[in-house]
Every structure is written in C-alpha cells, then in structure tokens.
Amino acid sequence: MAKQSSPRTTSTAPKKKRVSEAPQPTTGVIATAAIDGSPRHDDIAQRAFALYQARGASGGDPLQDWLTAERELFPAH
Prior knowledge:
Elements: H1 41-54, H2 62-73
C-alpha cells in the first residue's frame, strides 16, 4: 500500500511588513570619548547626521560629514 502524503496547510495570518528606518550615514571612523570634556563620538555622529539631513538626506559623503562635524566641534587653535 502506498503511503499518502499529508496535506499542506497555509497560514491565514497576515504577514508582517518590515518597517525600515531612515538610513544613517556610516563613516567607518571610530573615535573615543575625550577625558578633557571635548565633544564625544556621539556628539560628532549627531552633528554629521544633521549635516546629512540638512542636505535633504540624499547623496554626499559620510566621511566628509564626519570630518566637517569634527572641525566644527574641535575648532583649530
């Protein structure tokens, strides 16, 4: 006698959609927190992201945004 395969059932639950957030620029630059009270990594990252958003959140160079943020937060003496 031949073995019968069991019927497949399909789920009737709706599939969840993935909610994507706005992409954040990545720089590949790692900074450490300064002991002397100067801006930290998070401060630079937030400023770099603000530069990206000010541009309309399109294009540009994340590394340049990071370097600009560093120059703004660490002015040359």
